Amino acid sequence: MADQGSTGASGAGGAALHEMHPKPTLLSDFILGSQDGIVNVLGIILGLAAAHAPRTVIIIATLAALAAESIAMGAVAYTSTLSRRRLYLSESERERREMREMPEMERAEVRGILEGWGYQGAELDDLVDRLCGNPKAMLEFMMAFELKISPVDAAAPRASAGVVGTATVLGHLVPLIPFFVLIDVLQGAVLAVILSAVALFGIGWYEAKITDGKWWRNGLQMLTIGLVGGFAGFLIGYVLHAGGFY
Predict the structure, then answer these.
(1) Other CB atoms closer than 10 Å to residue 134's CB: what's the count?
(2) CA-CA distance, 189 to 49, in Å (whole number)?
(3) Would you call 143 helix, strand, or coil by DSSP?
(4) CA nearest 42: which of 241, 190, 145?
(5) In this predicted model, what pLDDT tens digit does every residue of 97-131 receive, in sequence order?
(6) How many other CB atoms are there within 10 angstroms of residue 99's CB atom?
(7) What's the distance, CA 92 to chain centroid?
(8) Is-contact 137 110, C-beta < 8 A?
(9) What is the reported pTM?
(10) DSSP 21-55
(11) Between the CA atoms of 77, 81, 83 and 84, what dihedral angle is there, to the nearest 10 degrees?
């Protein structure tokens, strides 16, 4: 009976080991796309509203920005993630070659890292022997703690592009929604600011929930960044309109 209980506990523990955790790259991709989308369109809307542009011009301009920005952001996410994957693959191949051709130097590097962690004596020798006796473990150890490069999955570039592109589209739509239901540009601009503020604060709150930050601080940080960007667009539109450019 005791053995069965131990087995059950091990099974439960094994299940716990497979607990799902948020992926930091997807979180950062979502924040990047949604924040960029909201701030970009809010700045355009407030700038055009300050320049007394008609509602149709605001809608056309923001939809054009949505199309261009979402494609551009998705493409940048794809190429930058692909570049990180290529860097990891090239550096891992170089590290494998050094492990074959200069094993003693690589062993010394492993020892140096472990010594920096406080290991010494017989315990240090044992850890060095164990790591250097397992090429896969040694390679991953050196990539992580010597070169400080994280592996990038083959599907990561497409996933990153999809998340950033989709989040950018959703972010663009938030401040644009009022102009599909309201004819008055001033009312639409005010409602766009309110919706954008709520969405930006929500993004900050979500980030804090996932990353163990303070929800109010992260929310206010996102909110401040977004409103500063929107105000910059308003200022440009106001100055150009006052100067007779529009």
Answers:
(1) 12
(2) 7
(3) helix
(4) 190
(5) 999 999 999 999 999 999 999 999 999 999 999 99
(6) 17
(7) 24
(8) no
(9) 0.82
(10) ---HHHHHHHHHHHHHHHHHHHHHHHHHHHTT--H
(11) 140
